[in-house]
Every structure is written in C-alpha cells, then in structure tokens.
C-alpha cells in the first residue's frame, strides 16, 4: 500500500505541513481500517498522534507492506512546531518503508531529514529517456499487446512526464485494460508535468471529501 504526499511551493494547499499530514492520515485510515470515511483531526499535534496510532498501533501487514512517499520535502512550509516537516515516529516498524525526495540541491538533505526515521540511502534520480520508457512498457505483462508494442506511446509518455519515474508508474498503471489507441487518447489529456498531475489529483481528493 502506498500512502503519498507531494509538496509544491507554488500551491498553498500543497506546501502546508498540516495538510500534508492530514492527507497521509486520511490514506492510512484506508490501509489500516479499510475505511476512508473517517475525517482526520484539524490540530497538527493531534494529527501526529493519529499518524503514530495508525502506523504503530498494531503490526503492519507482511503481505501488503506500507510505503510512505513524500516528494519535494524541500518545498514544504515550516511545520507548526517551528521545525522542518517530518514524519512523527523515530523508528520504522516492521513492513514500513519511507521514500522521500527533494527537488533542489542534495546539499540540504542533512538538515531536512535530521529527524526522519530509518537508515537513509541517497539516490540521485534523473528522468527516463524514451527508449527506457519503451522497454518499461514492453516488459509490463499486464498491458495489452498493442500497448506493449506501440511506437507512439513511449514518446508521448516521455513528453507528458519528462521521464519522471513516479509519474510514469501512475500513468502506465492507468493503461491496463486499454488498447493502444485508447491508451494514447488517455495520455494525451493528462496534465503536462508531475506538478500539474499532483495538483489535479489533490483537487479530485478534496472534492471526494
């Protein structure tokens, strides 16, 4: 199960630390209780308590580990505590993993992640080129044959995503069960760039309650 938040300093709702924690807590309700109807608390400190209770309250599932993805931590506003945004726990429970990223210089990571749990492994990630995207699609057995062999989709996905691997993974997942023409039409109307995609998904999440 992947719980995620993507910070974006150009959008107030996506740079707010309290909103980020509320977004993660809302998703954890689904993972832990299979119920997304519960409303997260408004208070930041109560949110941190809820987060801890959901993640550490009972053993996590070995058959469906919890992966928490937080993108662009360097674009988060300072938390209400006055410190950089961080996740509440000090140690990672079993079957829980964190993937966190910055979009700016890697030199700032030591300060930003000083209070984050777990052993850190730093990886510099660049965008995937069209041939690599084509190979990814071709090796995805869950996609239709026409999609896996399409000459159009790899270049279209590269143009839409800029080779952003996480964005690509979401779009490729959306291509399941579609033939090439339908898949190309879907990709053509998706937002340009990961930031715009996240903004659209955030608005959809807010509208859904």
Can you describe what's shown?
With 209 residues, the chain is mainly alpha-helical. The protein has ten helices and three strands. The protein has helices spanning 12-15, 17-33, 44-56, 109-112, 130-138, 145-148, 153-161, 165-174, 180-188, 194-207, and strands at residues 2-6, 66-71, 96-100. The longest helix has 17 residues, at 17-33. It is globular, with a radius of gyration of 18 Å.
Question: Which descriptors would you attach to this protein?
Answer:
three-stranded parallel sheet, 209 residues, 10 helices, 3 strands
How would the blueprint of this fold be written?
Elements: E1 2-6, H1 12-15, H2 17-33, H3 44-56, E2 66-71, E3 96-100, H4 109-112, H5 130-138, H6 145-148, H7 153-161, H8 165-174, H9 180-188, H10 194-207
Parallel strand pairs: 1-2, 2-3
Write a compact overview of the structure shown:
This protein is mainly alpha-helical. The protein has helices at residues 12-15, 17-33, 44-56, 109-112, 130-138, 145-148, 153-161, 165-174, 180-188, 194-207, and strands spanning 2-6, 66-71, 96-100.
Low-confidence sequence ranges: none
Number of helices: 10
Helical fraction: 40-55%
Query: What's the overall average pLDDT, rounded?
Result: 82
Shape: globular
Going by helix content, strand content and strand pairing, the class is mainly alpha
| Major beta sheet, strand line-up | 1-2-3
* Rg calculated over all Cα atoms: 18 Å
Compressed to H and E, one letter per element, the order equals EHHHEEHHHHHHH
DSSP strand (E) fraction? 5-15%
Q: Quaternary arrangement of the chains shown?
A: single chain
Q: Report the count of strand segments.
A: 3
